[in-house]
Amino acid sequence: MTKKSEPPKYIIVLGTTFSGSGAIFDYLVGRNDLDNPLKGEEYLLPILPNGLMDLEAAAGKAFDPATSEYHIMKFQEISEKLSNFWSNGPKKKELRKFAEIFHKNINQFTNEISSANYPMRILWRELFKTPLEKNLNRIKNLIGLEESIPPTRLLVSPKNLIEAVEKMHDNLFKTHSGNRPTILNQAGSGWNPIDSTKYFSDHKTILVTRDPRDQYLEIKQYKKGQSVMGFIDWYKEMQNRLKLISDDKIFQVRFEDFVNFNSKYTKIICDYLKLSDKVSSSYRAELSKKNIHKFQKYKDQKEIQLIEDNLEDFIYN
Length: 317
What we know:
single chain; four-stranded parallel sheet
């Protein structure tokens, strides 16, 4: 095969909150020719608060030497929480070893993106101190003990940071992939798929959208979403952002099309990802059909009518 006909190193499947992306992910994982290091768990590090996107902003447009250490520290904290979730979560047996490797790579990455370490007192640390910490410092001063000065690391440039992230991800995901493409679930934002997935070298993204009527019911049931008009505004804003996307690394597909015309869309997706469409998958589209037009059984059809009136361009018939 020529390089152009080879699949990407990373395949990322994104949704927009209960948009049906799990069906496409299940199809791809069910082929058994892709590496699935997280066993289906979501890789949220790019988009978590204080995750990679926030860290990049702190290294670039939001950079200031006085706050750089804060962002590095918070990134380490959220990474540790993610590692602990994998170690102690529902798939802890499968992911405990991965969590250890992740922890090691995060430490290496943090060292690589720290361009200087010049300890000094900085204001935000004083503002964040608890009353107990302040009293302890007063006592130390009274008895002549010197207060320890914490580190104040600086972040490298956004360009160098992104290069370091790509290197970390390759060390984390590609070392044991056996040259198979690595598939990642929700390793970015479905609302912002270009910027949130640029931390992976050689990748392609499948972005899944869904009929707003069924998406509303799923969010209402599983996320306790309130206010149908609030959802309508939410959905419009999402679609306003998605219509601006023009990037050959992003392929958009509707959940309903993938399920109802599975053979056709399986081939389209495989062609896009440079995968063979002859490889069978354990995924069964007929099992997903029960999740299409669930809104028809919803008791409050007035809410459904409001969605149809306000989001008619996105209704799936």
